[in-house]
Amino acid sequence: MNFCRTLLLLAVTAGVIACQTAPVTGRQQLMLVSESDAIDASKQAYTQTLAPLQKQGKVNSDAALKARVDAITARLVAQAILYRPETASWDWQVAVIDDPNTLNAWCMAGGRMAIYTGIIQKLHLTDDEIAQVMGHEIAHALAKHTAERMSYAYAQQVGLSAAGAALGSGAVSQAALQGAALATTVGVQLPNSRTQEAEADRIGIELAAKAGYDPHAAPKLWEKMLNATGSRGQSDWLSTHPASEKRLQSLAALIPQMMPYYEEKTPRPVYKFKTARAVRAPTEHANAMRVGLWITV
Asked: pLDDT digits over 224-238, tens only?
């Protein structure tokens, strides 16, 4: 069979078998990896990531900051569960990692999160701004983004294996495979990542507003990020996140829609986190399926 026709058949088959609707937004997603499998893999990756940091005393070392992050995140998780009631059974938890040079946060499938002290301290984040960061990360988990990214990585692996078999060995085939890998990254994975980031921004600002945090903090957060990183490009090209200026503008446009949620006078529900426990040392098996396990701001 012609090589191009083979790849087309693979793509069509994958699309027919594994196309699902994203929760919350209704966007169509490629799902070759189930959410439960992504949660299992993420549990192992979370342990592997935190265990060495915990040995160094860099996890939850500041009790006051940990309590502050927990209080904010608990209100966000409560709203997340209202979006997807089945997530009440997730092992929701958040770690504060002592790294003053890292401006980041992430959330894995199943609700395991972390935020770095650098983003809080260097940007002098308010509670409303921390809520925007963590709301964005929780949104990734709600929208099954880990499973989706793992699915694209799996599809890429299968596609390149098929390409290798069709093209054969030698310098020409190696060059062709490298080109195919680049084309897959630029044409498939990065645009999808930008879609995920915009989706998480949209869900996250609403989670925060419903939890009682001012939506005006969303564009302010990104203005701080712009000033800290010096990144003011408008182009989305070769970026896994929406260009920061465009992101700021999109979030600002959502504020009027979010204000009624923020201004509601009803009490905001609060999730009760389980008692913090030590993270066990990582195992070799935890190295498996690491691609796409966490999504960062």
From this structure: 988 887 766 554 444
